[in-house]
Design goal:
A hairpin with a 6-residue loop joins strand 4 and strand 5 (70-75). This protein has 536 residues and is of the alpha/beta class. The strands form three sheets. Strands 1, 2, 3, 4, 5, 6 and 7 form a seven-stranded mixed sheet that branches. Strands 8-9 form a two-stranded antiparallel ribbon. Helices cover 54% and strands 10% of the residues. The protein contains 24 helices and eleven strands.
Length: 536
């Protein structure tokens, strides 16, 4: 690890350099609240002592071998960008301030003429963001209407409003504040000679910026391994087309752990890939991540809605590991499309069924993810070896009674209620015939009897307290329902329920009444349907 220098720079000297936001970074993400915090820090420090240095944070930089010198920003881009927006907002309030103007304009060091083709801060992340930033810094009045909802523009406007308000309450203090900002506000610059050193330094720092997560670090490391600019550009384009990257890396880690029969405690994601894989075959790592992403798309688009709903709504990601391990071993990719033979698809469906029976039985009985974790990992290992018999432990007779008690105690606020209702709904045979392709992940947990008490017919306050949050009084519904609490609650809701694509909801729409008896009957119906699936 090599640190070239650690100078402490005031804002005038800091923003007299040229900076590059590399394309492995995330886009500009600071919101108004974070900009307000930066402004308050600066003004509070000024009001406390206008002649004392104020430390604002750190920036981790890599020096590029170029003329003029350009610094690649590994950490600090959010703050650096916002400081430039602040400089522009201050200049808007005092166009005669030469110090602010000098920061926003790059001059030729020999002729002192403005260099129109050179910008203070260049971003490779999103080209549109870079263009908008340059427009805001050059002339915010010329920002087009379509760009006025972007964070860059909105934060500039917010800072400008803050300055106006502060100036009104602190007359004749704006110029001293600008002098304080440029001369006394300090950033500690950690100047590194290589990306590896910069990332190590970054990972040990605690600052007010938005920290990069594990996948941001992995992105940077992968980016560094590609040699040509063409390879780097293709990597960034492919990376930006993939969603939920952290989940994909976690799935991939467990596939590799299954391959190696590694059942130890789960490693930290970044450490696992840094230590075990990255330096061996970085291109294969990313190809596999893209493959897993396609498998996720296949689950949603090609398998029956049954399997997508039951896996996607479960609140713990590890339920998806057996599916992805199976696909990794049995499916292929041809021309960007997933190919799974019909005989293998039947095997996959059996694996998913067996897993769901085991997972819901154990989870509802124990409410503890540790009760399924080790068995899931072992099942993944067997799947990787293509040993598909007896993947999950069989149920014991004593579990049936415990399951019934646990299921009937499930209520609206419990972690597994939504996924349990989803399983119940998709097990309804009518669902295939009436609406075979509904997706339940965007549905809401709906109380049939409203959860707020009213003097409803046939309902005492005690009964309402007992049954309102009971599983028997809950359904999944496509949208939130806001019905005035009165005696016609069921009739009013049924008009909405009739438009549902969930068969069980359509059945509720035909109910003549909804009393404690109906809630009990439905709870028993839920238990029977789930038990018939899980214990058979």
């Amino acid at each position: 690890m090599y640190i070239k220098n650690t100078p402490k720079k005031n804002i005038r000297n800091l923003l007299n350099e040229l900076y590059l936001i590399p394309n492995y970074q995330r886009p500009y993400t600071w919101n108004e609240e974070q900009c307000d915090k930066l402004w308050e820090d600066i003004t509070d420090a000024f009001e406390d002592n206008p002649n004392s240095e104020y430390f604002l944070g750190t920036a981790v930089l890599i020096e590029h071998d170029s003329t003029p010198t350009i610094w690649e920003v590994v950490d600090g881009q959010q703050r650096l960008t916002t400081l430039l927006l602040l400089i522009r907002a201050l200049l808007d309030h005092d166009m005669s301030n030469r110090g602010l103007f000098e920061i926003l304009t790059v001059h030729n060091k020999r002729t002192r003429e403005p260099e129109e083709t050179i910008v203070r801060l260049k971003s490779e992340v999103i080209q549109e963001d870079f263009k908008l930033l340059q427009q805001v810094l050059t002339d915010p009045l010329k920002v087009e209407k379509r760009d006025k909802k972007a964070k860059l523009y909105k934060n500039h406007q917010s800072l400008s409003q803050k300055i106006t308000y502060w100036n009104q309450n602190n007359p004749n203090q704006l110029n001293p504040l600008v002098d304080f900002l440029l001369e006394y506000v300090q950033i500690l610059c950690i100047e590194c000679t290589d990306q590896e050193s910069a990332l190590i330094i970054f990972q040990t720092l605690n600052n007010r910026g938005l920290a990069l997560n594990d996948t941001d670090i992995l992105k940077a490391k992968l980016y560094g391994y590609f040699k040509t600019q063409e390879e780097k550009d293709k990597f960034i384009a492919d990376w930006n087309n993939i969603e939920d990257k952290e989940i994909l890396f976690r799935i991939y880690m467990h596939i590799l752990r299954a391959k190696n029969e590694d059942f130890k405690n789960v490693s930290q994601l970044r450490k696992y890939f840094e230590d075990a894989i990255m330096k061996k075959n970085h291109s294969q790592v990313f190809e596999d991540i893209k493959k897993i992403y396609l498998f996720r798309c296949f689950l949603e688009a090609e398998l029956d809605f049954w399997w997508y709903n039951t896996i996607s709504l479960f609140p713990i990601d590890l339920i998806a590991y057996p599916y992805h391990t199976f696909m990794f071993r049995y499916a292929t990719i041809k021309d960007g499309e997933v190919v799974l033979l019909e005989k293998d698809k039947k095997l996959l469906i059996q694996v998913i069924q067996d897993m769901l029976k085991f997972v819901y039985r154990r989870i509802l009985i124990t409410s503890n993810v540790n009760a399924i974790k080790e068995d899931i990992f072992k099942a993944c290992s067997s799947i990787y070896q293509k040993k598909l018999t007896n993947l999950f432990p069989e149920f014991e007779e004593s579990e049936k009674e415990i399951f019934e008690t646990s299921l009937k105690s499930l209520s609206a606020g419990d972690k597994y209620t939504k996924s349990t209702l989803a399983l119940y709904h998709v097990l309804n045979e009518k669902q295939y015939k009436e609406h075979p392709s509904i997706y339940l992940d965007s549905c809401h947990v709906e109380h049939i009897l409203p959860k707020s008490f009213h003097d409803y017919d046939s309902w005492s306050e005690e009964d309402h307290s007992t049954y309102a949050n009971s599983l028997g009084n809950l359904i999944l519904f496509e949208k939130k329902v806001h019905i005035k609490a009165d005696n016609d609650f069921l009739l009013n809701k049924q008009e909405l329920y009739k438009n549902s694509e969930i068969s069980d909801v359509l059945e509720i729409a035909q109910q003549k009444k909804w009393t404690p008896k109906e809630v009990e009957l439905r709870l028993n119906k839920i238990h029977k349907r789930l038990s018939d699936f899980i214990f058979n």
